[in-house]
Design a protein that fits this description.
The protein has nine helices and 14 strands. Helices cover 40% and strands 27% of the residues. The strands form four sheets. Strands 3, 4, 5, 6, 7, 10, 11 and 12 form an eight-stranded mixed β-sheet that branches. Strands 1-2 form a two-stranded antiparallel sheet. The chain is an alpha/beta fold.
């Protein structure tokens, strides 16, 4: 039994086609057919059955599929460990980023990763913190930079930085100049243009306001920060955002900024990993630099 036979078999089963598997493996269909047939002869079992749409695994093939994946994974881990003895960090690392962080950090993150780990590969996914937490627990990603909320309690987190949140309004508000500061419990007086309930920023603001006995007045639910600022500028309501969100407005529009006190609101970004997560090529520590 050879690794190339197992690799051919796994790809054919998962793709349901010799043709598609040959394309992925950069080979030809007769070569794959020969490798799979050699495996069947050695095991004395029919592993595949052909049908009108391609091929599928037999009952024996389904059993063999699990074993083949395990053997291929173990072989790759062995290669990885041997490369590490030479001081080479390899493997694949997948990370998820909250949208606001992804906007400013993705390019630099990839550049730094490629410089430090030229023999490794990286993939970057973007999603709300709620989804990033689910992806971590499912093993779809190895780590995430997300907003730290109560919903992230099942993952390991390390704080990166925090930003104070302010009440952002239109500078042309007809009701007059905005106050310099307000108490959090008084925020109910301001109609808010705020992300939906799945968004970490909404969860932070709503939870802290509830602790002060205040219920948010929601004018509009909009997830994109740029669209929120557009609506605030047009007088549809107020936003609760870091001051940098208004300061980095590409249109350089003036906004009123009111500090929220008693208590001060902060959004906290954290680096999160799953305590049970094993990377593609070994335990989590093998990917730390």
């Amino acid at each position: 039994m050879e690794l190339k036979q197992l690799e051919a078999f796994v790809h054919v089963v998962e793709l349901g086609s010799f043709t598609r598997a040959a394309t992925i493996l950069d080979t030809n269909q007769p070569t794959l057919s020969r490798l799979v047939r050699q495996l069947e002869v050695e095991l004395r079992q029919a592993l595949l059955v052909r049908h009108g749409r391609g091929v599928a695994a037999t009952d024996a093939g389904q059993v063999m599929l699990g074993h083949a994946k395990g053997m291929l994974l173990q072989a790759e881990r062995a290669r990885h460990d041997l490369r590490q003895l030479r001081g080479v960090v390899s493997g694949h690392f997948s990370i998820g980023l909250a949208p606001s962080f992804a906007k400013v950090a993705t390019q630099e993150l990839i550049r730094q990763f490629r410089q430090r780990f030229p023999d490794a590969t990286i993939s970057v996914a973007e999603g709300l913190s709620t989804y990033l937490t689910e992806w971590l627990m499912m093993g779809r990603i190895d780590a995430a930079v997300l907003y730290d909320t109560s919903l992230t309690a099942l993952v390991d987190k390390r704080a990166l930085f925090e930003e104070e949140l302010f009440l952002i309004g239109s500078a042309q508000d007809a009701s007059g100049p905005a106050p310099k500061q307000i108490r959090l419990k008084d925020i109910a007086r301001y109609p808010l243009v705020i992300p939906g309930r799945m968004h970490a920023l909404r969860q932070i603001v709503e939870a802290r306001a509830a602790e002060e006995g205040s219920k948010l007045s929601i004018a509009l639910e909009v997830d994109a920060v740029g669209a929120i600022l557009d609506l605030v500028c047009e007088g549809y309501g107020y936003a609760v955002l870091p001051i940098n969100a208004a300061a980095s407005d590409p249109l350089k529009r003036p906004f009123s900024v009111t500090r929220i006190r008693q208590p001060t609101l902060h959004s906290r970004l954290a680096l999160a990993t799953s305590g049970d997560r094993w990377f593609d090529h070994g335990p989590r520590r093998s990917h730390k630099a």
